[in-house]
Amino acid sequence: MRAAKLKQVEIARLAGVSQATVSRVLKGNPQVKEELRQRVLAVVQELGYVPDARAQSLRSQRTRLIGLVVHRAPAALAGDPFFSALIAAIIEHAAKHDYHLCVDTARTARSQRAIYEELLRTRRVDGLILVESETRDRRIERLTSEGFPFVLIGRYEPEDATYSVDNDNIGAAHMATDYLIRTGRRRIAYIGGPAGLTVTRDRLQGYRNALEAHGIPYDPHRVMFTDFSERSAANAMAELLSLSPHPDAVLALDDVIAACAMLEAKRRGVRIPDDIAFVGFNDSPLCRYVEPELTSVVVDIPLLAGKATETLIALVEGRAPEAKRQIVPTRLVKRESA
Amino acid sequence: MRAAKLKQVEIARLAGVSQATVSRVLKGNPQVKEELRQRVLAVVQELGYVPDARAQSLRSQRTRLIGLVVHRAPAALAGDPFFSALIAAIIEHAAKHDYHLCVDTARTARSQRAIYEELLRTRRVDGLILVESETRDRRIERLTSEGFPFVLIGRYEPEDATYSVDNDNIGAAHMATDYLIRTGRRRIAYIGGPAGLTVTRDRLQGYRNALEAHGIPYDPHRVMFTDFSERSAANAMAELLSLSPHPDAVLALDDVIAACAMLEAKRRGVRIPDDIAFVGFNDSPLCRYVEPELTSVVVDIPLLAGKATETLIALVEGRAPEAKRQIVPTRLVKRESA
DNA sequence: ATAGAGCACGAAATCGTATTCTGAGGAAGT
DNA sequence: ACTTCCTCAGAATACGATTTCGTGCTCTAT
To answer: Which of A225, B52, B163, B327 lies at a 20 to 30 A Cα distance from A275?
Structure first.
């Protein structure tokens, strides 16, 4: 059945040295004479020995595993290009430091706690990357108080002493809204995700700031929230179109929501961008597949993921991260929808 | 700093029992009197003790981690709805058995080997789910010969004694091609992924079978391969359109490729579905965002992922899986593009 | 020649849990 | 009353690597 597992002590016996020496050679400890080193390496090569990660984890108190917890139901995750991009980029960066990625989803509040316990308290992972946190998330205090290494993506509270990597959501939404205003739109709507998410709030704030800067009154009827499902995005759009006059532009929290909203608008015979303009977020490949092509705010996901990963690994390894809060620049890619 | 780590031996001391008893209580070993059990549980509750997964892994020789290795460059993964759906579904199923998911990408052949060594030989994961394997993949023999638990998605070789979960790619492609033929298409093209992938080959086979069944000659000029990049899909489409007469239908390996090809076709002024029909695979949300909406073969990804996960965990835990080869049914969702 | 320093290595402790081994105590059977 | 059996829990060990400690040995300086 399963091949007999090779242990250091066997390598040691075959090389005629002690197990400690084998370990030293493999760890690159310079306190080993060249001759012995060669002898050990020869046996290691010959037998294809690889150290057992489980034993290393216990001994070193490090699993070399970082966790990513996504607060979404699998269904809401399924078609989302943001997460595949994020996951791919994190894996890539983690691999450079010889870390692996453990991904978990947590749909309910209860399972969030469970996953948090499971991953963290059990020391199953060395650190955590959290995305889409809610504005008041008690877990964050707890992570902090336990001194557990973690990095937030897309959430920032001035009072926290946490590390975070951010899009400047407020600024980006401001910029996008400003663009809509300067292209003549006045009745601009906003479709966010769940109301509790920091991203939803921050982009709403940026949207409001832009309106205010142009002296356009803020109308709460033009603000909608979704649960990231297609249906809720379509419903939000339907509701916006039932206003009279209906909005002449929509700023959506992400490209998927924008695409669903556009679909609903087209279904109801509204012309895009003539009657209504759309702007999304993330500049996912999706933007070029929809018709008209979707104008979107580019969020540099690889960069975002890279900074988050580097910061987390620095924390795990006790080095000083680059900065407490890092901002990734954004820019608007103009296409046909706005 | 980091909260002092609680050990079983401390719980034992506080409860006035031995460490072994604490372990027994936590493992649900019935050989413990109710009184002691309660006393131990009280202390565990009180202090919020959670066992250390690293020590458990070493002792039990199980990490409760399953690996998913994706053979794609991060860029090609970034926007792909198939993988986010797959990952989400695997996580969901694994969680039911108290397993977690470790995801890795492997772009080059060299890094594939490296990841394979890293995850498997080090016993970092208990088992592996492999997707998009190449038809002749030497790693598979090696996994088999080492007796390591693994499950293949979308690859099946009659001679292997491996476990696999499959879409019946040949049948599905046959069905989709048949549909195109019966709606009057005769010059049907096929755009696959990399030529070495089993999925690419199997669907090509199904496509050829359908042509043959209808007595339509097979024309290799109408068969294209891509590397999953948008550019290569667009190039493939451009090349197909340069044929004269150009194809009147395209069967694409997945929805993303189909969407890119449609985009290129529209860019060149070809009307869909009048001049050319399109069929994709996966029925991703994307299908409804493109215009015209994309006809696609539904692959039940949650079911696929569920069967793969259950099979793998059964193998890991030494139970007999349901079957060596499991087939997930597919069906065609007709929309506007064909 | 000898003390002191430094090097290279082996022996042994350690990481935290699961399990086997062992023994104390009690119940049951003759 | 004595053996036998069973139950329960503590002691000891194993999992496989890393690291501390200690010890010969070599090398240098006096």
So the answer is: A225
Complete DSSP assignment for B239-276: HHHHSSSPPSEEEESSHHHHHHHHHHHHHTT--TTTT-
What is the predicted pLDDT for the residue at B132? Answer: 74
Residue B113 lies in a domain: yes
Contact B58 A54 (CB under 8 A): yes
A314 token code pair: 């620095």
Residues A202 and A250 in one domain: yes
Give CA separation, A30 vs A14, A18, A128, B244, in Å: 21, 16, 33, 69
Q: What is the pLDDT of residues B156-185, one digit of tens each?
A: 766 667 899 988 899 999 999 999 999 999
- How far apart, in whole angstroms, are the C-alpha atoms of residue A60 and residue A56? 6
Residues B125 and B56 in one domain: no
Tell me what the mean pLDDT of segment A47-66 comes to.
96
H helix runs in chain B, sequence order: 8-15, 19-27, 34-47, 53-60, 74-78, 81-96, 109-116, 138-146, 169-182, 198-213, 230-242, 255-267, 286-289, 301-316
Q: Is there a single domain that holds both residue B84 and residue B111? A: yes
Distance CA B33 to C1' C30 in A: 30
Question: Which residue of A91, A119, A264 to mutate against B (max B Cβ within 10 Å)?
Answer: A91
Predicted pLDDT at A160? 67
Q: How buried is residue A111: exposed, middle or buried, by Cβ count under 10 Å (0-12/13-18/19+)? A: middle
A62 touches strand D (CB under 7 A): no
For residues B82 and B197, membership in a common domain is answered with: no
CB pairs under 8 A between A and B: 186
Range of the domain at B234: 169-299
Give the mean pLDDT of chain B. Answer: 91
Q: What is the pLDDT of residue B79?
A: 75
Same domain, A183 and A294: yes
Task: Give the pLDDT confidence of A189-243 residue by residue, as tens digits.
Answer: 999 999 988 899 999 999 999 999 999 999 999 999 999 999 999 999 999 999 9
Does residue B17 lie in a domain region?
Answer: yes
Residues 269-328 of B with CB under 8 A from A: 284-286, 288-291, 301-302
**Pick from B65, B79, B262: which is nearest to A85 by CB?**
B79
Tokens of A225: 């929230």
Q: What is the pLDDT of residues B78-119, one digit of tens each?
A: 778 888 899 999 999 999 999 999 999 876 666 767 777 778
**Which bases of strand C have any atom within 7 Å of the beta carbon of a protein residue?**
7-12, 14-20
Residue where the block lists tokens 């916006």: A240
Mutate to test the interface with B, among A97, A108, A122 (most CBs of B within 10 A): A122
Query: In CATH, what number is assigned to the domain containing residue B49?
Result: 1.10.260.40
Asked if A186 and A132 sit in the same domain, the reply is: no
What is the CA B24 to C1' C24 distance in angstroms? Answer: 19
Residues A153 and A77 in one domain: yes
Number of compact structural domains in chain B: 3
In this complex, the residue of A54, A117, A118 whose CB is nearest that of residue B57 is: A54
